[in-house]
Amino acid sequence: MTIQINYKNSASKNAPGNLILFVNDKFDIKGLKKYISKSEQSYISDLLKISDFNKKLATFELSSKKKIILISIKKNIKNSYIENLGAQLYKQIQKSKKSEYVINLDTLDFKDSNFILHFLHGLKLKSYEFDKYKTKKKNSFIKITVFLNKKKILSKNQLKFKALEEGTFYTRDLVSEPGNILNPDEYARRLKSLKKYGLKINIYDSKKMKKLGMNALLGVGQGSDKGSYLVTIEWNGLKNGSKPLAFVGKGVCFDTGGYSLKPAKFMEDMTYDMAGSATVVGLLISLALRKAKVNAVGVVGLVENMVSGNAQRPGDIVKSYSGKTIEILNTDAEGRLVLADALTFTEKKFKPKFMIDLATLTGAIIVSLGSEYAGLFSNDDKLSKQLIESGEKVEEKLWRMPLHKNYDKLIDSKNADMQNINYVGGAGSTTAAQFLQRFVLNKTPWAHLDIAGMAFSKYGGALNSGGATGYGVRLLSQLIEDNYE
Length: 485
Hints:
- It is a single chain.
- By secondary structure, the chain is an alpha/beta fold.
- The protein folds into two domains: about 1-155, 3-Layer(aba) Sandwich (Leucine Aminopeptidase, subunit E, domain 1), CATH 3.40.220; about 160-485, Aminopeptidase (3-Layer(aba) Sandwich).
- About 35% of the residues lie in helices and about 20% in strands.
- The chain contains 13 helices and 19 strands.
- The protein has helices spanning about 40-50, 80-95, 115-125, 155-175, 185-190, 205-210, 215-220, 275-290, 335-350, 365-370, 380-395, 430-435, 475-485, and strands at about 1-10, 20-25, 55-60, 65-75, 100-105, 140-145, 200-205, 230-235, 245-255, 295-305, 315-320, 325, 355-360, 375-380, 400, 420, 445-450, 455, 465-470.
- The strands form four sheets. Strands 7-8-10-9-13-17-14-15 form an eight-stranded mixed beta sheet, with helices on both faces.
- Helix 9 packs parallel to helix 12 (about 430-435).
- The longest helix is centred in the middle third of the chain and has 22 residues, at about 155-175.
- It is elongated.
- The model has no long low-confidence stretch (mean pLDDT about 95).
């Protein structure tokens, strides 16, 4: 849906059209007499006395041409609550055939000038639709005019929210693409085009990776007739040569499981097994759009895990970029193989302040946390605390899970340095993270986010209407804003 936002000075007392007005949490409308007529006030007052309205939002149809929506605002509300209110407003607007609305901020007894930006941010995030392949599109359009008096909105804050929205939408678009369109070759081509944002892009194809010794990553993609790639995306917002912040993403464009074949049911969802990489891409776009004062690098491994005469077999042994050998006991535990080479490469080449990897890595994390929290595994308490606090602010929540040397025995191999699954059973997400930790060689602060339960939603969430969520873009942007700019 297309949403057009215009800002203007305060409206006349009785602004025409569909009005969106703010009241306190008791739905006290006495303060609205400047903005609505006496008859409208009387009508609304009578309805409020006899009707059980939503405690956050109430809609009044005054005529076929006019609607008034009242939104109740509590004191000391969090920004995430404001964004959720915006999303709820979108749901109300979506049900209506009316396409033009007026928001009058003069009815808002709230000093934060960023209120409206958070409010509209939630509305716009909720409005996302992926209808690229529908032959009949809705072509729906909403025009919102915001009237404000003394509340100034800084252009840099507008830019910040716009950058977050564009980055999140780009991530959602990537995750929503079908596997026959967004294969590794096409994905790499799209990333090359990101130079237009001022990002530096380097693409390592199979030939270059073979020369570097990235056999763990290459092994995953060898069964596909598409290429395999490692792509680096650099944003240099500082010119002082400071160490970058590094973000590493799993980009398995489609995952059949390989010879350890997945069940047919829900295999179509494996188009989103590249969501970790998409989050990294969306984040870097967002940083570039708002000219973030930070150095950052994104590294994504792009592969397709297919079945063919050339595909990797259970029992194969590969030598990773780190020099460590891995016995492949299950070809469906492929994401950790992609990340193993990507993590070591990122640490060696960029020597970052920290590394955060994101991956739809295990079904076990969904068993543990469902679709409310992503799993956080880390070797660094400070980075973990920063991530958890940032996640709470934007409601992209994280729950820290354990890492411990005692889990190592579950992934030690008799035939190689390690095996890629725990054959004993149990602790599936933890042993996967324990595996990844072995490829962080120089004690760089590192965190692994298992986002398998968060990247895609069948039923929709607070700020998305189902499908790809864009989880992680806002979380990591908040982390950077709060701690590294």
